[in-house]
Design goal:
Distance between the termini: 81 Å
Helix content: 10-25%
Structural class: alpha+beta
Number of domains: 2
CATH topology of the largest domain: Immunoglobulin-like
Number of helices: 3
Order of helices and strands: HHHEEEEEEEEE
Length: about 190
């Protein structure tokens, strides 16, 4: 009995899971009846008509080329992957906040992904507006190996320096290895001049 309880005499059916149990069952019955095996088998129309089958066909070379391209792309992506990912999401609920002392504040959510297997300490900086500082961030940010850290951050600048829409860049660098670093662009909003 076929595992999916279908009758192969009805032709191709979507229930077929290609387990080949029908081939084994047919061959055992053919052996009992002293008939030649292979009534049910994997074959091609070309082979059924008595044609000679070739191992090396153009389709095989196309598949081999595609497989080689995919393998090369995978190895290249693994070799060039960055060990840290930085994602900056600006709070869309408020454009900006005016604080006492002439400060303008924007709120961001920083997502820091450590793709290495070991825990690492990172340093977060921001640049693009004169005198721009970060509040709510420790000097060193600890992220577990393979971990994701979501961190709310407030960026503050003097009102004289913050006007309109200004492009800023968040940068994260590993404390133990300066080559492990990445940047992400964002925007700092201030009052219209």
């Amino acid at each position: 009995m076929i595992p999916t309880s279908i009758d192969i005499r009805d032709g191709l059916q979507y229930e077929c899971i290609a387990c080949a149990a029908c081939i084994d069952a047919c061959d055992s019955v053919m052996d009992k009846m002293n008939y030649p095996r292979g009534l049910v088998r994997y074959t091609t129309e070309h082979a059924l008509e008595g044609g000679k089958t070739r191992v090396f066909r153009p389709r095989m070379f196309v598949y081999a080329t595609l497989l080689l391209i995919l393998l090369t792309a995978m190895i290249t992506s693994l070799a060039t992957r960055t060990p840290v990912i930085l994602d900056v999401l600006r709070d869309r609920n408020s454009l900006y906040r005016e604080l006492p002392g002439g400060l303008i504040e924007n709120i961001y959510t920083i997502k820091l992904i450590n793709q290495s297997n070991n825990a690492r300490s990172f340093r977060l900086t921001v640049d693009g507006v004169p005198g721009l500082t970060l509040d709510g961030v420790d000097e060193d940010i600890q992220v577990d190996g393979g971990g994701v850290l979501s961190l709310p951050v407030r960026a503050r600048a003097q009102r004289d320096n913050a006007y309109g829409i200004m492009n800023i860049t968040f940068a994260v660098t590993a404390v133990d290895d300066q080559s492990v670093a990445t940047e992400e662009d964002s925007r700092f909003l201030g009052p219209t001049p």
